[in-house]
Fold these 3 entries.
Entry 1:
Amino acid sequence: MSNLYDARRYLTRFDVQRLPSLFTDVLVIGSGVAGLRAAIEAARYGSVLLITKGRVDESNTAWAQGGVAVVMSPEDSFETHVADTLTVGCGLCDPAAVNRIVREGPERVRELIDWGGIFDRRGEQLLLGLEGGHSAPRIVHALGDATGREIVNTLIRVARVTERLRIFEDCFAIDLVDVGGRCCGAVTYHRHFGHQIFWAGHTILATGGCGQVYRETTNPEVATGDGHALAYRAGVPLRDMEMVQFHPTTLYVAGATRALISEAVRGEGAYLVDRQGRRFMPEYHPDAELAPRDVVSRAILKEMAVQGATCMYLDVRHLNTEKFRKRFPMISRLCEEFDIDIATQCIPVRPAAHYMIGGVVVDEMTRTSMPGLLACGEAASSGVHGANRLASNSLLEGLVFGAIAGRVAGEAAASEPVTAPGRVRSDIEDSVRTALDIADVRNSLRSLMWRNVGIERCGARLTETAEIINFWGRYVMDKLFDDRAGWETQNMLTLAYLITQASLRREESRGVHYRSDFPDTNPDLTGRHLILQRTPEGLRAEFAG
C-alpha cells in the first residue's frame, strides 16, 4: 500500500476553468511579521494579495513577548551577535545568512520606528534587554512584553494604507498550483466565497510554524504547519525538520492553555527552582538560567522526572515587584488571573513546543527550488538558526528576509505579466475507507508527538510513532474535506510524519534534537543538513552540505 503522505499531490478536487479566478503580481500566504513585511515591500513594484486563514492579526508574531535581537549599542557589535548565533546553532548555521540578518537588523528596526512603532526607551535611548545565549544586552522590546503585538499592529497599519496591497482574511490556502514545475499561485477556500484560485507571478510562503502538532505549545491555534505541507506536496525540498525548538518556560496550570513566560524574565534575574526552592540550573550549565533553550528545557524535564513533578518554578520574589510588573505587564496580569502572587509565590512552568527551526529550503534571496515560489520567516529554512535558535532572532529574521522576499518577488513579477496557464485539474476518487473522527485524531496526534517526538527522543519510540502516523494517514489522507479543520488535520499529520522521519534519520544529539540512544554529537554531521523531498518514488531523505 502506497504512503498517502507521499502519494497525495492535492488535498481537494478542482478544475481551474470552473473556479473563480483572481490575478495578482505577488501572492503572500501568511500574516505574521515575515508575510506582512514581504507584502509591504512587494507592493512597491506591483499588485499584491495577502491571504490569511484567520484574522490578519492572528499569528505567532502577535504572541511574541521577548523582543528583537539587534545591535543598537556602541558597547555591542555585529561580530559578537553573529558569534552568539553561530555558537547556539551548534554547527548548522549558514554564516552568510546570519551575517545578513545581523547587519540589516538595525535598519529594519529603525524602519518600524519611522512607521510609528513604539519601543521601550529610557529618555532617547532604546532599552536593551539580555536573554539566554547573548553576550550583551541587545533585545529591543515594546510595552515590556508585548513586542510581537506592537510589531504586528505597526505592520498592519502600514499594510492597510499601502496602495496595490489587498488583504483577504478567512482565506485558507489549500494547495499550491504548479504548471510545468512553476508555481503559479494557490487554490484557496474562503468561508464566504468558497473555492477560488489566485493566479500570481510569484508566491511567497510566510505561513509560520507548526506548534499545534504538539499537545504542549506556546503557539496559537493557527500554527498547524500549512506552508510546510503545501511545499512538501508540491515537491519542494524541506530541511532539518527534526529541529523543533521547545521553550523552557510556559505557565503550567492544569487544565489551562499554556502561556509563554518570556526568556527575558530570566534575563532580568529570575531563578529556576524546584518545589523545595532549590535552584538547579547551575548544576547543568555555567550560564545557569541563561543557558541555551535546549539545555534549559532538558534540565527542567530531567528534574521533573527525577522528582515525579508536573512542573518546576520561576522564582521572581527576590526582584523588585513593582519594577517587574512594569517590565512584564502581560505576564503579571496572566499570573494575577490564576491567583499567583509574584511577590510571595513562584510561577509554575514547564517546557512546550515553541518554534520550528526546520522548513522550506531557500537560497540567500529566499527563493525555493520551484520557480515562482519564495519562502520566509518560520516557514523557511534560511540557515540562520542552525540546530537551535538564539533567543529573539526570529522576529529579526522575519523582518529582514520578509523585506528581501518582497523585493525579489516584486521586482521579478513586475517584468512578467500574470496569465492563467492551460487547464489544471485535480481528480481525486472518493474514499471507501472508514472515516475517523478528525477531532479525536488531532488530539491523539498531539499527545503522541509530545510523548515520543518531543524534547527527548529514541529510535524505538520514533519507529512506533511512524507506524501510528502511517495508520492514521490511511484513513485521513485519502479523504476529501470541505472545511479548514479537515485540511489542517491533514497538514498536521503530514508535518508529524516529516518530523518523525527526520528524527529517526539523524542518529545523533545536536541542539534541540536530542536522542537518548545517540546522546553524543556526531562530528561527521556538523554542517550536514537533512533534506526531505516528495518524489514520484516516495520520500527522499538525504544529508547534504
Entry 2:
Amino acid sequence: MTAPSWNLSIAYQDLNDAKITQDIELIQQCIQVLNQHVDRRDLTAVMQNAIQTKEAAGKLLATINTFAQCHASIDAINPGAKSLIGKLAKLSSQLSQAYTPYQDTLANAPLEYIQEVLDHDSGDVYGQAFLIACDRKIADTKLSVAEEQLLAAMQVDGRDAWSRMYDNITGSLQITLDDGQTIGFSQAASLLYGTDFEKQQSAWRGIQEAMATHQESFAAILNALAGWRLSEYQKRSSQYSVHFLDPSLHQSRILPDTLDAMMETTLAHRDIGQKAGRLMAKVHGLEQMQPWNHMAGMPSLDGDAEQTYTFDAAIEVIKQAFSEVDQEMADFVDLMVENGWIDAEPTPNRRLGAYCTKFAATRTPLVFMTWGGSRSDLMTLAHELGHAFHNWVMRDMPLCQTRYPMTLAETASIFAENIVRDSLLAKAQTREQKLEMLWEELSSAYALLVNIPVRYQFEKRFYQQRQEGELSAEQLCQLMDETWREWYGDSMSESDPYFWASKLHFSISEVSFYNYPYLFGYLFSKGVYAQRESKGSRFYPDYVQLLRDTGSMMAEDVVERHLAMDLTQADFWRQSLQMVEDKVSQFEALLAQGE
C-alpha cells in the first residue's frame, strides 16, 4: 500500500458530526456543575465529585481537540478544524477556571483531608494522588484563585494565540527550490532527512529565505511567548523567586541537579557527537558536515542507489524488530495499521514534524508523520510507534495516571529506534550494510548530543537576555550562530542562523524548553536498553512495568526503582554516553577497513 491516511471514525465521523456538538454541551454542563458547587468544596464528597466531573469533561475535551488537531495536521488551512480548535481552547480555559478553586484547596488543605478525598473507588479520584502531591510542591507559587482564573482566561487569546500564528504561517508556507519547483514547508523539511542530496542545499536555502522573509513575525512570536512567561513567573515569585527553568523542571518531573548533571556531562563529552559528525562528513566526501545534510541519509559507498522503503516494507521491518523483544509488540504494530491509526501520506498543506497522540475517550493511539521512504522516515515511524506502544500498555490505567512527562515520554520511542537499528545491524551481511545501520547511530548521536544541547543552550541564553528586553531577529540569529558554533565546533561548515525560526519547538505555547527531554530520553533509554540482554525473559514484563510507572513517579524514582542508579550523579549519564561512543568507534573501525 501507499502511505496511509487516518481513519478517525472511532471518535467522530467528521468535523460536522452532531456528536461533537453534543459532547461540547456535556462539557459545558460539567463546567456549570463545578461552578455551582464551588462553595462546598471543603466537603469530601463534593471534592470527589468535582474531580470526577473534571476528569469526565477533560476526557471529552481532549478527544474532540485531538480529532480537530488531526484534521489540522493534514491540512493546516482547514477552516473547520481551525475554528473548532479555537472554540475548544476557550472551553478548555473555562474548564480550567472552574476547577481552579478545587485545585487550590487540594494544594493547601491538610493531608488528612487529602487522604479522605483519595479514599474512593474511582480511579479518576484515587489516581490523583501523585498529581496532587506534585501540585502541593509548588503551592507557594500559586496566585489567588481569582488571579489564576484570570490568567487561564487570558492565555487563550494571549499566549496561545502566538503559537497558533506560528502554525498558520508555517502550515501555508511555500518553499521555492533552485529548479523553480514550489513545495510545502513540511515537504522541504522532509527532503533534509532523505538521500536526494542534490536538492538538500536548495531546500535548506529555500527554508532560510522563507524564514528571513517572515523573521519579524517569528521574532515577535518568540519574544511574546518568553515575555508572557517571564511576567507570569515574576508574579508567582511572592514566596521565593521562580526561575524560568522551574516550570519546565516541574513539568519534566526532574530535579535541577539532574538537569545540571546531564548537561554538564554531555558538554564534557560533546566530542563524541562531534566525532560522529566528522565521520559522517568523511562518508560524504567532505571536510565538514553542512547544515543541509547533517540529518540526511548515508551516501552510497558502492555506487548503488540508496535504499528506500515503501510504507509496507517499513512496517514489516519494524514488526520483525519488535517481535525480537516480544510478539505482543509486533502484534501492536499490526493493530495500528489495520485500524487506520497512522497518517503518513504527504499532503500540500501538511504541518511540520511527526508526533503521537491519542483519543482520551477510547485510549486510541494515533501516529502522524510525512512518509518519504528514507531510512530516516523508517526510524521516525519506529520512534512514533514506540510512543504509541507506551500509551497502549497504559490503556487500562486511570487516565490521570497516564500523564507522563516529556523526559520519560521519550523512553519508549528511543527504545523502539534502538530495537530497529540493532535488528537491522544484526541482519547486515556486508560491510556497507553494517555501515548503513551504524550511520543511524551516528546520526542520532550528532542530533541528540549536539543539536539538542544547541537548542537548550540557545533557549536558556535567550531567556536570560529576554529579561532585559526583546531581542531582534538579527540578535536571535547571532545568538543561534554563536551557540551553534560552540557545540558543533569544527564538525560543521556553517551554522543555521534561522534555526530558532524554522524549529517549531521554540514556538509551542504550552511548553518551554521543549529540547533537553529528548537528550534525557535518549540517554535514559540507552540505560534501559542495556538491560535487555542481562534480564533475558524478565526484560519485557519489567520494561512494560517501567512504562506504566512513568505517569505516577518522579524521573529520579523511576530510575532508582528500575535501574538502581542516581540521576543526579554523572555516573549514570557517563555509562550511556559510553554506549554511544562504542557505536561511533565501531563505525570508525569499519569505515577504515575500506581505506
Entry 3:
Amino acid sequence: TPDFFAVFGTAPLLGSGFPDASSSAVISERLWRSRYSASTDLSAMKVLVSGRPYAIAGVMPESFDFPHTTDVWVPIDLATDTRARSAHNYWIVGDVKRGTSLLAAQADLATVAARIAADNPTENGHVRAKVVDLQESLTGAVKPTLVLLTVMAGLVLLIACGNVANLLLVRSSGRRREIAVRAALGAERQRLIRQLLTESAVLAFGGALLGVVLAVASARASRAVPLIAALPVPPRIVDPWVRAFTLSLAVGTALDFGLAPALQASRIELVESLKQAGGRTTTSHGLRGALVSAQVALAALLLVGATLTARSILRLQGEQLGFDAARLTLLYANPPGTVRDDARREAVNQLLDRVRALPGVTSAAASDVVPFTGGGSNGGVMIEGQPAATGKAQPHAAWRMVSGGYFATLGIPLRHGRDFGEVDRGGPRTIIINEAMARLYWPGQDPMGALVAAPGLDEEEYVAHQKGEEIWMTVVGVVGDTRDVGFSLPPQPTIYFPLIQDPNTDATIFVRSSIPTASLRTPLLAAASAVSPEVPARVQALKETMTRSVSTPRFRAFLIGLFASLALVLATIGIYGVAAYVTAQRTSEIGIRMALGARGSQVLLSVVGRVVKYVAIGLALGLAAAAASTRFIAQFLYGITASDLSTYAFVGAVLAFVSLASAYGPARRAARIDPMKALRSE
C-alpha cells in the first residue's frame, strides 16, 4: 500500500516512495547496484514486473529487508484484489501507538474481526485476529536452532577448557621443583598464582585472537561452499561486539580453568618438592580423571545430538516425493500480459512448443507453483451433494494451475481419468484432484465426475458465489500424491486447475530432458527471448531448488556434526594425554613390577583399566544427560525419536573404541618398558 515505507519509518536511500500509486515501483539497493550500476538518474530507469512496466521512484537501503530478500515493491489495488474473502494472502503491519500495549491492540482488532465474521459468516466466520510482535514473528522460528547451536558451542568450549586444565595440571606438576625454589627464595603464594594465571592468560588471548581471525577468514571462504551458499542469509562475522565477546569469553574461561592448576601448583611442601626430581610428583590423579570423565560426558552428549540429526536428515531426504526430480529443469519466463489476456496464453503455448522442439528435451509443461518454494494458493471449496460448511469445517485444498502434460513431465502417476488437453480450451471448467483429496472428501467412493466449486479462485467465481450461482467444475482425473511443500509435510488435498482456462496466472516451465541443465541453459534462454524478448528469463535445476529448501536443516546438521567431531577429537586428546601422563608417572612402579615378574599384558591392562574407569563414568553421565534432553532436541528431528536406543548404542560403541585406541598407545609403551632401565633411572 502507498504508506508501506512510512509505517516502518525507513526513508529511501534515493528518491521517494510511491508518488504515483499506479505506475511507480521501489527497488532494493542490491538490485539498484547489480542491474542499474548505482545510477542516480532514476527518471531513466524502468522495471518490468509480470510484463508490466513501472517507473522507479526510489531505492531502499540495504538494511531494509521486508519481506525477506525482496528486490521490487509495487503498489497493489486492494479494491479489486481482495474481493475473494476466502483468500488470505496479505500481511498487515501496523505501528502501535505510544502507550498502547500489544494486549490492548489485540482487544481492538478482536472486535474488528468479530464484526467481519458476523457480516460474512460463510467466508470469514472462522477468522480471528492475532497481534504479534513483528520481530518475534520473523525470528521466532530460528530461535530454537540458535539456542541449540549456542549450547553446543558452549559444550565444545568446556571440553577445550577441560583439555587446557589437564595440560596445565601436567605442566604445573612438572614445575613443582621450580615453584618450590621460587617459594624458598621468598615468593608469596599470591604472587605465584598471579604468575601462573598470567601465563594462562597469554596463551588464552593468543588462541582466542587466532580463533577470531580463522572465523572471519572461514566465513568469507565458506560462501563458495554449496551447502552454505544455499542458505537464505549467508554467514557474516562483521560485528565488532561479536569479536570482543569472543575474545573476552575465551580469555575468561581460560583463566577460570587455569585457576585450579594454579592453586594446586602453589600449594606445595617445600622440603618434599625440593627432594623430588624435576618431573616426578606424587600428586593425586583424581582431578585429571574427573576432567577426562567430564570431557567424555560432553562429547557423548554432542555425539548423540549429531547422530540423531544426521539420521533425521537422511530420513527426510529419503521420503518418497511422488514425482521424479531427476533431469528436471525450470525455466522462469513469464510472458507479459494483463488479466484475461489471450495473447498471454498464446505466448505460454508458443514457449512450450519451442521448448519441446529443443534437442534433448523429452517433455515440457507449465505450472504456477514450483515445488518446495512456498508458493501456491489454497482456500475453501464446496462439493455438490455434501452439506455446506463454514469455518474450519469447510473443505479446504491447495490450488495448482498446470498445463497439459504436467503430470507426465514430473512423473506423477495418473490413477484415474484423463489429463488436461485442448478439449478444455473454452469448454466447461474441469479439475484434477490428488488421492489425498479423494480419500478425505469421497471416502470409499469414486470422485470421477463429481462437481466442485472454489469461490475464492478468481473474481468470476467469487461474484457468482455472492449471487448464489456457483460455477461448478467437474473432476476429470485423479493423480498420485506429492510432497511439494516440504519434505517433512505429508501430502495435502490438492486441486489442479487447467492453465489453459486461466491465462492470467504466472507460470514456470518444467522441462524433462535427457541432457543436464547446464547443456540446456543457452537453448532455453534463447527460446524464451524469441517469444518475449523484453522479459528476463532464468534457468535452474529443480534439484537445486529442492536443495535450497532443506538448506537450513542440512546446515544445522552440518554444524552439529562439526561440533561433535571437534568434541570427539578434543576428548581423544584428553584421554591420550592422561594415559601418557599416568604411564610417565608410573615408570618406576612399572619397572619394579616387571622386575618382580609381571607380564606385559598385565601392565597394559593396568594402564588401560585406569583410563577406562574415567571413560565409563563419563560415558554413563553423557548418555544420561542426552536422554534427559530429548524433549529439546526432538523438535529438530523427523522420522526418528530422540530416545532411539540404536543411536545411544552407536555413540557408546564409538566412544568406547576411541577411548581404548587413545589409551592403547601409551599402555603398549608401558608394557615394553625395560625394568633395568627404569630402575637405573631412579
